[in-house]
């Protein structure tokens, strides 16, 4: 019994020292956090982040579906868009989901815009989407028989493919239009001139 009484003050003393050490650690962490928050680089980064999120919120506010979704869920649309983008990126980098997500990105939005382009009288958007579908078809063809070889030599194939397809399809970048005039058209014209000779 006397050994228990002897160890109790020791245990209590050890607990007190552990509590003091924990308090010191918390104080140090809080002090470091305050120093980081007061650093000019942190403040500038936080200001830029706030500006970009404000711009994103303004841009996303143009879409009634996102405004309605924000009202129903209570999640700000800019944070939802960032979270969805991060979820999308994580799926691209998980190999089991990379192919279906990449193909979904390559098909869904372009299919909608292609249907809309069919209804317009001009042919400029037709060049955009016919070129896009030709490039998308090339990727699909390549994947159908040589995916293992491609993945062996190009380990980041799906993220590269996905970002390239996004660049091709976005109306702001008009990548497919650029690709048509800088790659497709010269190659086809070169092929035609060789066949004509």
Plain-language structure description:
- There is one protein chain.
- With 197 residues, the protein is an all-alpha fold.
- It has 8 helices and no strands.
- The protein is elongated.
> Biggest β-sheet: count, sense, barrel?
none
Helix-residue proportion:
over 70%
The separation of the N and C termini measures: 108 Å
Find the structural class using helix and strand composition.
mainly alpha
Cα-based radius of gyration, to the nearest Å: 28 Å
Order of helices and strands: HHHHHHHH
- The total beta strand count reads 0
Please describe the topology of this protein.
Elements: H1 2-38, H2 40-60, H3 64-73, H4 77-93, H5 95-118, H6 124-153, H7 157-169, H8 175-196
Helix pairs in contact: 4-5, 5-6, 5-7, 6-7, 6-8, 7-8
Quick synopsis:
The protein is 88% helix and 0% strand. With 197 residues, it is mainly α.
Keywords:
8 helices, 0% strand
């Amino acid at each position: 019994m006397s050994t228990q009484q002897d160890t109790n003050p020791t245990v209590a003393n050890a607990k007190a020292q552990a509590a003091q050490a924990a308090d010191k650690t918390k104080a140090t962490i809080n002090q470091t956090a305050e120093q980081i928050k007061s650093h000019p680089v942190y403040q500038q980064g936080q200001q830029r982040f706030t500006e970009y999120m404000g711009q994103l919120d303004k841009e996303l506010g143009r879409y009634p579906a996102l405004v309605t979704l924000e009202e129903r869920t209570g999640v700000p649309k800019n944070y939802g868009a960032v979270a969805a983008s991060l979820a999308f990126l994580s799926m691209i980098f998980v190999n089991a989901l990379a192919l279906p997500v990449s193909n979904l990105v390559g098909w869904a939005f372009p299919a909608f815009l292609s249907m809309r382009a069919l209804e317009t009288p001009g042919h400029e958007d037709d060049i955009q989407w016919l070129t896009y579908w030709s490039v998308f078809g090339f990727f699909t063809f390549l994947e159908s028989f040589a995916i293992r070889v491609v993945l062996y030599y190009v380990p980041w194939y799906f993220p590269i493919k996905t970002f390239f397809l996004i660049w091709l399809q976005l109306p702001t970048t008009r990548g497919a239009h650029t690709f048509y005039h800088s790659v497709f058209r010269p190659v086809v014209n070169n092929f035609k001139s060789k066949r004509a000779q």
